[in-house]
Amino acid sequence: MPQPSPVADHLDALTRALAFDPALARRVRREAEDHLREACERDGVSCVETERQVVAAFGEPHALARQFAATALLAQTRRLGALMMLVLAGIYLAMKGRIAWYGLVQWRLSEDLQALNAVGVWVDRAAFLLALGGAVLACAYIATRRAPGEFHRAYGHQLGRCMMFCAAVAAALLVVVAIETVLTACRLYAADLSSVAAIPALTLAIELALAGVLVVHIHAVFRRARRAAALLEH
Amino acid sequence: MLKGHLDMIVLAALAGGPAHGYAVIQEIRRRSGGAFDLPEGTVYPVLHRLEQKGLLGSRWTTSESGRERRVYALTRSGRRALADQRAVWRRFAAAIGGLFGEAGDAAAEPGR
After folding, report:
1. What confidence score (pLDDT) does residue A43 get?
2. Strand pairing of B19-20 and B68-74?
3. Domain boundaries, chain B
4. pLDDT value at residue A84
5. Strand arrangement of the beta sheet that strand B19-20 belongs to
6. Are A70 and A20 in contact, with CB atoms under 8 Å apart?
7. Is A9 helix (H, G, I), strand (E, B) or coil?
8. Is residue A13 a contact partner of residue A60, using CB atoms and an 8 Å limit?
9. Residue B55 in contact with residue B77, Cβ under 8 Å?
């Protein structure tokens, strides 16, 4: 029968409690293992009873995870805010690049597409301005948050609001990219496909990729926040 | 009260030079005469937070026993922050001492 190891059990429990941030969990596990092994060695011969005392002195895994969560989640939310601004800038540059290309190659729209384009551009601009305004508000809100010593329900609500702001910006950006896709597809469909179509297709692909990256990142931060919120039930 | 000053306590424990988490908690215990007997793991969230703020730097090293360990050291900003907090704390302690009449007691006892 294998010898029970309170240190190994404690490290496993700590890793599980820190599941909201796998990279952090790996680093903390390595640090905690060094700490607990050294404490066992200092206390004398390593036996199960010594390990139990060392583990008890280290602290309860969920309580420690709540302290890590406060800082880690805010750092992730700040990174999300920075990414959101980069995605906005990237989509803006891709749109401007495509428009500049249309001018350069004197790519004019047929008359029946001009009405659709006018409406599309108007909605596109409104959605982009909405996304930009939302992003500025979200970043201001995120920048003014301060991590408490320990993750608690009210702080979880604050982070939830940060993420909702980011999700609203992402939704507006998805509208922008969807309209851009329709308008560009119409333009490409109406024209003969040639090498000049490569630039609009490439800039559109960049916009789609940027929007996708933002959505995936928001989803990941939401998932981590949900896991951290589960710590409050312990 | 202790929780509100953990950042300063950890910075002060690292003022003597780089150390790993276990050594930090031992140093806190030794220098406080055992008064600050925190759960030992509590020091790690503080170390990580201070590192994110740029007040500490850290790197992996290998201990004498061959185990990997993370060693933390004060950065230039960390030393500055510690000096600022030390000055604030001394002013605060002197003011509280004045309120409790300790300055007057000290003056009345020339040997002190």
Report:
1. 65
2. antiparallel
3. 3-108
4. 96
5. B19-20, B68-74, B56-62
6. no
7. helix
8. no
9. yes
> How would you write chain B as a 3-class SS string?
CCHHHHHHHHHHHCCCCCEEHHHHHHHHHHHCCCCCCCCHHHHHHHHHHHHHCCCEEEEEEECCCCCEEEEEEECHHHHHHHHHHHHHHHHHHHHHHHHCCHHHHHHHCCCC
- Determine the distance in angstroms separating the CA of B52 from the nearest CA of chain A, rounded to an integer: 8
Confidence of residue B111 (pLDDT cuts 50, 70, 90): very low
Fold of B3-108: Arc Repressor Mutant, subunit A (1.10.10)
Give the closest of B20, B39, B48 to A68, CB-based.
B48
CA-based angle B90:B93:B97, to the nearest 5?
A: 135
Which tens digit of pLDDT belongs to each residue from A195-212? 778 889 999 999 999 999
CB contact under 8 A, B41 and A64: yes
Could you give the CA distance from residue A209 to residue A207 in angstroms, rounded to a whole number? 5
Distance from CA of B83 to the nearest CA of A (A): 22
Flag whether pLDDT at B112 surpasses 50.
no
